[in-house]
Design goal:
The protein is an alpha/beta fold and 249 residues long. The protein has one domain: Spore Coat Polysaccharide Biosynthesis Protein SpsA, Chain A, CATH 3.90.550. The protein is built from nine helices and nine strands. Strand 4, helix 2 and strand 5 form a beta-alpha-beta unit. It is globular.
């Protein structure tokens, strides 16, 4: 593998594939006019000011070929690796794009907020040395789906050596969460952002419909770069929209 000889400070690796079990092909589903879920996510996170490189880490499976043109359109790098060993996929991405720390983002969160990404990277380095930091809801109080999580490069490599269970390797950071030997820091929501019951990720078809309806109520002049406060204000005004969501299993 050819290594890019640049030592970035912060990179963001966003994981996506076409082979989702619960909602196959969701990355290509339109959520704002004709703009797909993946395109919305990539356009939003590339606005983060503290990230040196954005990489889409997807599967080597042929069905994920269709994701590459979207990344190219958004001027995002692409790395392809294991379908199910996502931890390995992350570590190999880090090998190609060396950095001091990695932000992990999931492509089923259409409202990932670049400001939240910037806030977390600053928080991470203000609390360094730490292994892990997050501003994900609901534990931090933010709406679930606007924040991210971050690990040092050394921590990611350590996880690759220590995590043996297939589930831990598929979900990347669950081994870390279960082990107090890793130092974790949490960035909690200020009062105006505290909406932990607002879930904004996409797992099922009902979630796609919910996000589409919510997007219609957001300021069109800001699309697709709505702020978290735009989203909070819309849901505060029409909380019945949340009833479209399936209860989390």
């Amino acid at each position: 593998m050819e290594v890019v000889h640049i030592d970035y400070k912060n990179i963001i690796i966003i994981q996506a594939r076409m082979g989702s079990v619960r909602l196959p092909g969701k990355s290509l589903m339109p959520i704002w006019k004709d703009m797909s879920l993946l395109e919305v996510v990539l356009r939003r996170i590339t606005k983060a000011k503290t990230i040196d490189q954005v990489i889409l880490a997807t599967s080597i499976n042929k069905e994920s070929d269709v994701l590459v043109p979207i990344a190219n359109k958004c001027k995002v790098e692409v790395f392809r690796g294991s379908e199910n060993d996502v931890l390995e996929r992350f570590v190999k991405t880090l090998e190609k794009y060396p950095a001091k720390a990695v932000v992990r983002a999931c492509a089923d969160n259409p409202f990932l907020d670049p400001m939240m990404i910037d806030n977390l990277t600053k928080f991470f380095w203000d609390n360094y040395p730490c292994d892990y930091a997050m501003n994900l809801g609901p534990i931090t109080g933010f709406p679930d789906g606007v924040g991210v999580e971050m690990v040092s490069a050394d921590t990611l490599r350590r996880l690759d050596k220590e995590a043996k269970n297939s589930s831990d390797r598929e979900h990347v950071l669950t081994f870390l969460h279960a082990n107090p030997d890793y130092r974790s820091c949490y960035l909690y929501a200020e009062e105006e952002y505290q909406r932990p019951h607002y879930r904004l990720d996409i797992d099922y078809q009902e979630d796609i419909e919910f996000i589409r309806e919510l997007a219609k109520r957001l300021p069109e002049e800001n699309a697709p770069y709505w702020t978290t406060m735009d989203i909070i204000n819309a849901l505060d005004k029409e909380p019945e929209l949340l009833k479209m969501r399936r209860v989390r299993e």
